[in-house]
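Recall that a protein's primary structure is simply its ordered list of amino acids. Everything else, from secondary elements to tertiary packing, is in principle encoded there. The following example makes that idea concrete.
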Amino acid sequence: MTSRVDTLIILGAGGDLTSRLLLPGLASYLASDDAHAVSLIGVDRADLDDASWRSRVVDSFSVEPSPLSASVAESSQYVKADVTDASQLERIIASAPGRVALYFALPPAIAQKVCAVLAAADLPEGIVFALEKPFGSDEKSARDLNRLLQTVLPEDQIFRVDHFLGKSTVLNLIGLRFANRVFEPLLGAPNVAKVELIFDEALALEGRAGYYDHAGAVVDMIQSHLLLVLALTAMEPPASVSSEDLRGAMAQVLRATRVQTADGTCARRARYGAGKIGDRELPAYVDEDGVDSTLGTETLAEVTFEIDNWRWAGVPFVLRSGKALGAARQDIVITFAPVPHLPHGLTGVTGPAQLTISIKPATLSLDLMLNGEGDPFTLDPTQLTTTLGDAAMSAYGEVIASLIDGDPVLSVRGDVAEQCWRIVAPVIDAFRSNAVPLEEYPAGSSGPAAWTTS
């Protein structure tokens, strides 16, 4: 699929996702050098005229204004419709010029219902679907959704969106791993002691109780975003960076991934209590609006996985994500095994060397031990650091660009979505059965006092 999309139709145009992420992402794309003008149609149940809709679009586009975004906003349209009504959707799609992308900015249950009604609809050739995570609620429902989608469109016209996998993130990891001979032979057992993927947020619930309270940290972040980053970190060299080769390599390593203990007790969980982040006083999670305290939802989770293949056998992969933490981090930390022997007479080694790849900001640092200036027999730690390539667009700008350009390389393939649910199923079961204790930490802290990270 190579031809570009001409019309972007957003289902759920009145929602928070559209105004907060999608429209600013479209603005970021339209401000880029390779942007392509598109017709924009917003669809929702709310009463809204074209002028009011355009005003919303202009406000969202103000984060990154450009002549092209001004033109797109001016010509955009709004249609009031029931998105679960096939006849109404068919009329809207038929009225759109050129190749169409249908963006499902909808709750997962509604998105699946829309897919079901469109299965029997008369859709134009080349139409593209873009669906937000989560893709299903477990492995079976993800498989059922994929089988349904297969009756509607070919796989390369289905974009399962995961904005965490921006193109710059993907290319930085691939370039670092496979274009540097000094790293690639060392990344694996027995040279690596452990790998940590850490996504700590200073943000708290931020009004998302309707979704988050039924998801928690494992489903919201580890099941989707972090397992995909694990796949990029651990996969074998792909033949190319085409969508088929890259996504195939990711699927292969995820099929070999499992939780460290079959009963899911290789995980820890906690939720935040009242605290302070900067000048913000935060209530305890259970006191946030819309939270059901009986659900026992975790806001911080840490899970240890293993990869059963030749390269990574025995190396633990620790994935951690949480909210309302004191310092935001998006890091991949690779801890190397100690050297097998240090010549007698050399002193000063204090700990293992680490390679830290920060996704945001995009930086890399590598620990080295060098002879000290004062006493040449005493080793001093030092660190090599560099910056990695910055993204030309925002994360959602890259998603929109891939969608419009018809390049599914940033899309989650159907079998990958199913594997991610399979991998975390024992942890979800362990949390629901209370086999793993629910600890607490003050908002603004680094987590429970007994937890440590690199």
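DSSP finds twelve helices and 18 strands in the chain. The CA atoms of residues 21 and 409 lie 20 Å apart.
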